[in-house]
Specification:
Blueprint lengths: L1 H7 L3 H7 L3 E15 L14 E12 L4 E14 L2 E17 L3 H30 L12 H27 L1
Antiparallel strand pairs: 1-4, 2-3, 3-4
Helix pairs in contact: 3-4
C-alpha cells in the first residue's frame, strides 16, 4: 500500500532522478560586486523621495558536458530628483552539475532552478552593500523565475513565428 502511494505521488523531478538525471551545486561565489555613491557625502542630505530601478540578467556558460556556470546579475540604481544616489551591482555565480536531462528540461533548469538557488545570496549581498554604503537597509522582493522563464519562452516563440511569417512572405 505504501509503495502505491509513493509511486502515485512521483513528480517530474523524481522521474528524472530515476532516469539517471542529476543536479548538484558545486560552488557558489561572488563574481563581481560594486557600489558607487557618486555624490557622497552630499547625497546623505537629500530630502527627495528616492526612485529605484532594478535590472536583472543571467548568463550561462557551459564548462564541460555536465557543468555550467550560471551568473545572476542584479543592478540597483537609486536616484532622487534625477540625481544618482547610488548604483549597486552584484554578479552572484554558481557552478552547477546537470547531467541526464533532455534539452528542454536542461534549459528550464538553467533558467529557473539555478537562479532560484543564487537569488537569496545576491539579495543578501545587495542589502548588505547598500547598508554598508550608509543608506537605509533595502531588501529585494522575491522573484518568480518560473514566470520570467515562461515569459521568455513565449517571447522567443513569438519572434520565431514572426521570422517564419517574414520568410514566407519573402519566398512568395
Amino acid at each position: 500500500m505504501t509503495d502505491e502511494i509513493q509511486t502515485g505521488a512521483t513528480s517530474g523531478a523524481t522521474d528524472a532522478a530515476e532516469a539517471g538525471a542529476s543536479f548538484t551545486v558545486e560552488k557558489i561565489y561572488v563574481k563581481d560586486l560594486s557600489l558607487e555613491v557618486p555624490g557622497a557625502p552630499a547625497v546623505f542630505n537629500e530630502q527627495a523621495q528616492p526612485q529605484l530601478q532594478m535590472n536583472l540578467n543571467q548568463q550561462v556558460t557551459r564548462l564541460n558536458d555536465a557543468a555550467f556556470e550560471v551568473v545572476l546579475g542584479i543592478t540597483l540604481t537609486c536616484t532622487a530628483d534625477d540625481k544618482p544616489l547610488y548604483l549597486a551591482e552584484v554578479k552572484q555565480a554558481g557552478v552547477f552539475g546537470l547531467a541526464g536531462f533532455d534539452a528542454a528540461t536542461l534549459d528550464a533548469m538553467l533558467g529557473t532552478h539555478c537562479p532560484n538557488v543564487l537569488y537569496p545570496y545576491a539579495r543578501q549581498l545587495i542589502s548588505d552593500l547598500i547598508q554598508a554604503g550608509g543608506f537605509p537597509p533595502f531588501l529585494l522582493q522575491p522573484i518568480n523565475f518560473d514566470a520570467l522563464y515562461a515569459e521568455g519562452l513565449r517571447q522567443r516563440a513569438q519572434q520565431a513565428q514572426q521570422l517564419g511569417s517574414a520568410e514566407a512572405v519573402g519566398n512568395a
